[in-house]
From TrEMBL:
This is histidine kinase. SUPFAM superfamilies: ATPase domain of HSP90 chaperone/DNA topoisomerase II/histidine kinase, Homodimeric domain of signal transducing histidine kinase. The keyword Membrane applies. The lineage of its organism: Bacteria, Pseudomonadati, Pseudomonadota, Gammaproteobacteria, Chromatiales. It catalyses: ATP + protein L-histidine = ADP + protein N-phospho-L-histidine. GO terms for molecular function: ATP binding; phosphorelay sensor kinase activity. Residues 284-486 form the Histidine kinase domain. The chain crosses the membrane at residues 186-209. It comes from the Bacteria. The keyword Transmembrane helix applies. Keywords: ATP-binding, Cell membrane, Kinase, Membrane, Nucleotide-binding, Phosphoprotein, Transferase, Transmembrane, Transmembrane helix. It is found in: Cell membrane. It comes from Candidatus Nitrosoglobus terrae. Gene3D superfamilies: 1.10.287.130, Histidine kinase-like ATPase, C-terminal domain (3.30.565.10). It is a multi-pass membrane protein.
Length: 487
């Protein structure tokens, strides 16, 4: 890691050099791509130009059949055909070739020299002969390109059908890869990038030396004083650094008082949070205990005034309320104990099957089917804690699910997490309690204790994970996501 200003500035310079190098490579690549594109475009253009000569020749040959290669008038007419065909194709030269006689016509109407160009390019005659021979042999358009150090020469030839034997039309174009406006812009851009690196290196070196000297002075002053009593630091003359020093000096003057005030506020906040938590729990416990006590009182009073049968019924009702109180206390203990999970390697298929089997009868009473599936063979977690959490989620799902629906329990290994999901087709908790859903005594049911989901959260957090609710139209999904532990 970079722990000093010097190393960071050097890293910045290295990154700049890397960025400039990448930009230079990109510019070269773009230039090469543009050159390739130019060559491709030129290749297409000379192909179309060759087709233009072919069409013009066919129109001419139909009017002058049969054609004779003897005499000068044919060469003059063919030259006129080539000249008119290439007039609208800048930079393209071409002609008509006969296998034995060689060149019958040549023209370069867009030549930018001092006068019209009428002679074949001598350096390219062998290539012109070869491309015409290839087109004649294949009886279809043939193309060829010669790549030189500063230019690429493109050739295309097309067979000419008619009474005159072994005739082909050919076109040629030169694409300059070095030179021109694009090449000059490339050199200018590379030069600017190089000068930028040099100038930046000099600037960073000066900045590094200056700031290192000032920071060394500040460091010496600060190391001789206690952090609670910052000294007054000297001004360096560097505008940005002086702003920091001024802020530090001002902070030093207020640090001691702020420290004391912060301690007092922290104590007040902690005390308030404890009181608020105690108040919420006390209110919840009082509410949950009041109802069973009221029921037991009513049953006991009725029993006193009734016969033996009524007394027995009252005792049964009182025992049921005592069980509710015992369940409430057990859940409160589960929330407050914060036991460290006893991690074990658990076969997930058998574990999920046991979870589902325990609730099949209760679900069947509402016509609800419970399924489970997992592709994970085993996971590492506390099976008792996780079973308690899943039991609470499944019980909630059975209560919330409509008659005839399904509940699906899954276990998946996604990236670095083990995820347990309980999916049902209910509407989910009311939106009004969604923000506090996993807090103790928060419930959307009149007969609920509001402790089930808080137990789920405690189990997830004890494993280093989270519990969350995901809702959509007609679906509710509770997830317990815990870090994947190697078996």
């Amino acid at each position: 890691m970079l722990h000093s200003l010097r190393s960071r500035l050097l890293a910045l310079l290295a990154l700049l050099v890397l960025a400039v190098s990448a930009a230079g490579i990109l510019m070269l690549d773009l230039y090469q791509q543009s050159t390739v594109a130019k060559v491709g475009q030129a290749n297409a253009e000379i192909g179309r130009a060759c087709d233009t000569i072919t069409m013009a020749y066919h129109a001419y040959s139909r009017q002058h059949e049969p054609l004779s290669l003897e005499g000068t008038h044919l060469r003059r007419d063919l030259t006129a055909i080539v000249l008119s065909s290439l007039r609208d194709w800048p930079g393209i030269e071409g002609g008509i070739w006969q296998a034995k006689a060689g060149s019958l016509a040549y023209a370069f109407p867009t030549y930018e020299g001092s006068g019209p160009k009428t002679d074949l390019p001598q350096a390219e005659i062998s290539r012109i002969r070869a491309i015409n021979k290839a087109a004649l042999r294949k009886q279809q358009q043939a193309s060829f390109q010669y790549v030189g150090s500063s230019q690429t020469v493109l050739f295309t030839a097309c067979p000419l059908l008619g009474s005159a034997p072994d005739l082909t039309a050919w076109t040629m174009m030169r694409v300059f890869t070095l030179g021109g406006q694009a090449y000059r812009q490339l050199l200018l851009g590379l030069g600017v990038l190089f000068l930028t690196v040099i100038f930046t290196a000099i600037l960073l070196a000066w900045l590094m030396i200056t700031w290192s000297r000032h920071i060394l002075i500040i460091e010496k002053i600060l190391t001789t004083h206690d952090i609670a009593e910052l000294p007054s630091l000297p001004i360096t003359g560097e505008l940005e650094l002086d702003r920091i020093i001024t802020a530090l000096n001002e902070a030093g003057r207020r640090l001691a008082a702020s420290h004391q005030q912060s301690k007092a506020l922290t104590q007040q906040i902690a005390s308030g949070q404890r009181l608020a938590a105690i108040g919420r729990i006390a209110a919840g416990v009082a509410h949950e205990i009041r109802n069973p006590i009221a029921v037991m009182q009513l049953k006991a009073e009725n029993a006193l005034a009734g016969n033996t049968e009524r007394k027995n019924q009252a005792l049964i009702a009182i025992l049921e309320q005592i069980k509710k109180l015992e369940l409430l206390l057990r859940r409160l203990l589960n929330i407050t104990e914060h036991n460290k999970p006893n991690l074990k390697t658990v076969a997930l298929g058998a574990f999920l099957e046991a979870c589902v089997t325990a609730h099949v009868k209760r679900a069947a009473a509402k016509g609800i089917l419970i399924h489970y599936h997992t592709h994970v063979k085993a996971g590492c977690f506390d099976p008792e804690q996780m079973r308690s959490a899943l039991d609470n989620l499944i019980l909630n799902a059975i209560v919330a699910s409509p008659v005839g629906s399904q509940i699906i329990i899954t276990a998946t290994h996604l990236e670095a997490n083990l995820i347990f999901s309980v999916n049902d087709q209910g509407l989910g908790p009311p939106p009004s309690i969604s923000e506090h859903l996993f807090e103790p005594f928060v419930t959307g049911r009149h007969d609920g204790t509001g402790l089930g989901l808080s137990i789920v959260r405690e189990v997830a957090e004890s494993h280093g994970g989270i519990a969350e609710l995901i809702t959509s139209t007609g679906k509710t999904c509770f997830k317990i996501t815990v870090p994947w532990q190697p078996s």
